[in-house]
Design a protein that fits this description.
heterodimer; A: alpha+beta; eight-stranded mixed β-sheet; globular; B: mainly alpha; 73% helix; 0% strand; elongated; EC 2.5.1.60 (chain B); repeat (chain B)
């Protein structure tokens, strides 16, 4: 089992990398200690989630599980009987994907977009007070219909949205504002009222605190505004069957179709560095010892989720977030139906109000006993995104742990947010509020890096840093990092004289002789051309 | 679109597609020649099937639609019961709906639908001569709504909608049509057709007395003001506003709107439409309500000032603004 690259971990970034390397003609061996695809981005059934929680709480003897234990801590899961539990897809990394960006580009260029489906995010709202949310106006239509904003507020908001959608670098409004906080920028330069500024900062730019800076927030907003309208009014997509876990699996499938080997569910007992050699570095290989497998897969390059390499992560004060997953069986409403229903008004005028796939944002101090310094988000996914059976919804909460909240337990910090969200469901009676069928709280810590690429020497060839990334950027960041790693690896392999083997386009799995009579394939693109034109444009 | 890389297909894939297209073209030409050869004399079922195939490939071929209708009249309808005729027409309505999804702006398809609707026979029974018609026409509204959902600015669809509402046996009440235009405008108010439809429906409702005209106009100004503030550059909004003002006989309304537009101009000093509308409405004040105006000169001066600004920001139309200014100065009637 000799490969050109071994990839450890089937998270989104690693899976994109594996697919790109395989399609480029390299031999890839892709391993994951978990019995499922997706790694830390996986979509899990209820039972899988229970197993995941158990295995991350236990003391363990592998590097990977120990690293996982440090990454996911303070896990508490309670549940009653969850019906049809196998039809749930709970994401460990709930994400919304901008319609314009590196991930969608990669999905289309690689053909993986054909493997799965997506749902457009229906609605984003800001929590205002118990039982009340405010819609977030992000488009001309939203602003027009909004009943809460004054006329002047509408004009100012539209002016801001037009500014944010255009080329604002070097504009007068931005001059000297580089270190200004975004909220202050909105209030001073665009005279936006406080609540409007909050909605823009926390529910359009997805800032997580009042101290977030202006320029990055503006750049995100611009990307999202340009994403609106591509597939529908909302800028964001949510992947079917639990989001990026399923997408990662799609990339793995693309890799496998192009010759990659997959091994899931075996513990990796050790990753052995190449023996020290005084000679040429070109032929040095890493090797893997897998549980219950005599053969040792070997490779010149290893691209790994750091959890597979080392169990100790530096305890950084920043980079921790509290998470909560809850399953409910009453729908959440963002708006009430109008009081009168008469012959003049048809059903479509009312709008459902019930949310199937939506995002609820809690600005700082919007919830009593919540956080006063950080914003929380709640992604709601239901049947429409194939995440649940009919009549059920998954709520995924996330909040970064600021310094102020550092000593709080995730359950204590997030429970008020869960309860606040539940005030938006129509409960049978005031005395029996909606009770979730399952709740799982945990603390998530940033790893030391997102990916480490090892080559001949003990020093990594390339490290993808791990940054605090807002939920709307996770998917695109993964795609960008995968591409960076791809080029580093390709260059390194080319330097060592490793030629990719071309797979003939007529068949899958037919490989030409390596190096014999072939021109050396120069790789110039991240994704090679697709093999068949779609039939939909006949 | 910005930032969207073109998907690249391999050389092999493009060759394969070219071959497929070549084969399709050959098949089409053969079929087309065959059908045209038959058109003057062949009214058989076989020929009918051939026209179906041909029209699916090219629904713009209106000669073939004509041929198809000839076959209906000359051979398929005679000797058939009303229920059979209705069946045949239903099938054609389904066919055209399918084709409209791919080709929403082809006159020939819309025409054929109208023809089918107009030829629905009496039935199903002597006691219920309108049964077939009623159910078919009701479905039509649904069809045109689907088309307008797909493209709210498709004037074919709007025209067709008016045709249906005017012709169908039991049309829905104008109030529900008003609600329909509200939905379309809320979805995207940059839609002249929707505002236009709204103006027609409102006129009907005011005439029949179903809606109180004064209250309704008040609400319409509210609606259009929201649109104005949201996007002062949208032309359809200002045109609708001008329609609401009408002949400007109501001075208080003119004053109110002028104030409101001025506030918008203060927020958005470069708005051409604000300035133009202010000039238009102030002229109406000058011309129609001169006797009640305190300071006519101030109004005239502000118009001239606005026109001067308009010349600067809209140079292609500067002669027009000059002419308007002349008209105001010399106290002429508004052209």
């Amino acid at each position: 089992m000799d490969f050109d690259t071994i990839v450890l971990g089937t998270g989104l970034s690693e899976s994109i990398l594996a697919a790109a390397l395989s399609k480029a003609g390299f031999k890839v061996g892709h391993f994951d200690a978990n019995p499922y695809y997706g790694g830390d981005d996986a979509s899990l059934t209820v039972d899988d989630l229970r197993d995941w929680a158990e295995s991350r709480k236990k003391n363990t003897n592998t590097v990977y599980l120990e690293a996982q234990r440090q990454r996911f801590s303070s896990i508490s899961l309670t549940s009653s009987n969850v019906p049809r539990s196998r039809t749930f897809s709970i994401s460990l990394s709930p994400t919304i994907i901008p319609s314009v960006g590196p991930l969608v580009d990669s999905l289309v260029a690689s053909g993986v977009s054909r493997y799965g489906g997506f749902k457009l995010l229906e609605s984003i709202a800001v929590f205002d007070q118990p039982s009340k949310v405010k819609p977030v106006p992000t488009s001309k239509e939203d602003v027009f219909k909004n009943k809460e904003l004054s006329l002047v507020d509408k004009r100012r908001l539209m002016r801001f949205l037009l500014f944010a959608a255009g080329e604002f670098e070097g504009s007068n409004e931005l001059a000297g504002q580089e270190t200004q906080t975004f909220l202050t920028f909105l209030r001073e330069k665009f005279s936006l009222a406080n609540k409007v500024a909050d909605a823009i900062a926390y529910a359009l730019a997805f800032c997580t605190s009042p101290s977030d800076l202006t320029l990055p927030a503006l750049q995100r907003i611009r990307r999202y505004l340009r994403s609106a309208g591509r597939y529908g009014p909302s800028p964001f997509l949510v992947g079917h069957y639990g989001g990026i876990g399923e997408i990662a699996q799609g990339f793995c499938r693309a890799a496998a179709v192009n010759g990659a080997t997959y091994v899931l569910g075996r513990n990796i007992m050790s990753l052995n560095p190449p023996p020290k050699s005084l000679g040429s570095q070109a032929n040095l290989r890493w090797s893997l010892s897998l549980d219950d497998l005599d053969e040792h897969p070997s490779s010149r390059i290893v691209a790994a989720q750091p959890a597979y390499i080392s169990s100790s992560s530096p305890s950084s004060p920043g980079g921790r977030s509290a998470r909560c997953v809850a399953i409910i069986n009453t729908p959440i409403r963002f708006s009430e139906p109008p009081p009168e229903l008469n012959d003049d008004v048809s059903v479509e005028d009312i709008g459902p109000g019930e949310i199937d796939t939506g995002l609820l944002i809690f600005p700082p101090s919007s919830v009593d006993s919540g956080s006063s310094t950080a914003a929380a988000s709640c992604l709601i996914t239901g049947e429409g995104s194939m995440a649940t059976p009919s009549g059920h919804w998954i709520l995924s909460f996330s909040i970064p742990m600021s310094e102020q909240d550092a000593s709080r337990e995730p359950e204590e910090l997030l429970k008020p947010y869960l309860e606040a969200a539940l005030t938006l469901t129509s409960s049978p009676s005031p005395d029996s509020p909606t009770k979730p069928l399952l709740t799982c709280y945990y603390l998530q810590t940033l790893p030391s890096a997102n990916m480490v690429v090892l080559s001949g020497s003990p020093q990594p060839l390339f490290t993808v840093p791990s940054d605090i990334v807002v939920m709307s950027e996770t998917a695109d960041t993964a795609a960008t990092h995968a591409e960076e790693a791809f080029w580093k690896i390709v260059k390194d392999l080319e330097r060592k004289g490793v030629k990719p083997t071309k797979i003939k386009s007529e068949g899958e799995g037919e490989r030409s002789e390596e190096g014999v009579g072939e021109e050396p394939q120069l790789i110039t693109q991240f994704w090679p051309p697709l093999d068949s034109v779609g039939d939909d444009d006949d | 679109m910005h930032g969207v890389k073109r998907v690249q297909y391999s050389q092999a894939a493009l060759e394969a597609k070219k071959q497929r297209d070549h084969d399709k073209l050959k098949a089409y030409l053969a079929l087309s020649d065959d059908v045209i050869a038959r058109k003057s004399h062949d009214m058989s079922n076989e020929a009918f099937e051939l026209t179906t195939r041909l029209l699916r490939m090219n629904p713009e071929f209106y000669t073939v639609w004509n041929y198809r209708r000839d076959m209906f009249i000359e051979s398929l309808f005679p000797q058939r019961s009303p229920s059979e005729v209705n069946e045949l027409l239903s099938d054609d309505l389904s066919l055209t709906f399918e084709l409209l999804k791919q080709h929403p702006k082809v006159y020939g398809i819309w025409n054929h639908r109208r023809w089918c609707l107009e030829h629905i026979p009496d039935g199903p029974s002597p006691d219920d001569v309108n049964g077939y018609r009623n159910s078919t026409w009701n479905k039509e509204l649904f069809v045109v709504e689907k088309m307008l959902d797909a493209d709210a600015r498709n004037f074919h669809a709007w025209n067709y909608r008016r045709y249906i509402l005017a012709t169908m046996p039991f049309p829905p009440p104008p109030k529900s049509e008003l609600a329909y235009t509200t939905r379309k405008i809320e979805a995207n108010f940059s839609n002249f057709s929707a505002w236009h439809q709204r103006s027609k429906v409102l006129t009907t409702l005011w005439e029949t007395g179903e809606l109180d005209r004064v209250k309704s106009i008040e609400e319409e100004f509210e609606l259009v003001r929201n649109a104005m503030y949201t996007d002062p550059d949208d032309q359809s909004v200002w045109i609708y506003h001008a329609w609401l003002i009408g002949n400007g006989n109501y001075a208080a309304r003119l004053q109110f709107e002028i104030t409101s537009i001025q506030e918008l101009l203060d927020e958005q000093p470069d708005s051409k439409w604000c300035m133009e509308s202010l000039v238009r409405y102030k002229r109406l004040l000058i011309e129609k309500h001169a006797e009640n105006l305190g300071d006519k000169k101030a109004l005239v001066d502000s118009c001239l000032e606005l026109l001067a600004k308009l010349r600067d920001i809209d140079p292609p139309r500067r002669r027009r603004y000059d002419e308007i200014a002349e008209g105001i100065r010399s106290g002429n009637e508004m052209q």
